[in-house]
Amino acid sequence: MPKGGRKGGHKGRARQYTSPEEIDAQLQAEKQKAREEEEQEEGGEGAIGDPKKEKKSLDSDESEEDDDDYQQKRKGVEGLIDIENPNRVVQAAKKVTQLDLDGPKELSRREREEIEKQKAKERYMKMHLAGKTEQAKADLARLAIIRKQREEAAKKKEEERKAKDEASVAGKRLQSLSLNK
């Protein structure tokens, strides 16, 4: 036997479930009560049994959502005191007809920074290709030095070839002279 005596507790012994029909009846009663209160607030302009009034009140559930002037019921003292909080942002639902799809889209900070970064990179590459940046100037100077070194090496090789060719020609002449003797 577990601690505490009996298995289970006192909770959940006598649960009562309401049927869907009872719930619907309660909702209908609340709606009827709300209609009567509205009629009393309006000053009883129309008769209670007026069919036009009843038809309007039955459709009022759907039309209340569509109205722009519809506001939620204020709770507590909110209805008595008007509070202007500059930090409070009220989210107003916009209709599809009010949306401005053709206007320019506002970019986030990250998107703006990324676009600026890409534009700066493109500007730098244009300047670099034109030879106006410090790095481009240093690269061009380095290339000029390398070209001079290669030209000098090419001249030196050419001179060595000429010297080698002259030596080989001179050696052949000596051989031909020595053979003729």
TrEMBL record:
Biological source species: Pelodiscus sinensis
- Which Gene Ontology cellular component terms are annotated? cytosol; plasma membrane
- Report the protein name in the record: PDGFA associated protein 1
- Compositionally biased intervals (Basic residues): 1-14
For bias type Basic and acidic residues, the affected ranges are: 50-59, 151-167
Instruction: State where composition is biased (Acidic residues).
Output: 60-69
Task: Enumerate the spans annotated as Casein kinase substrate phosphoprotein PP28 domain.
Answer: 85-162
Q: Where is this region: Disordered?
A: 1-85, 151-181
| The organism's place on the tree of life at top rank | Eukaryota
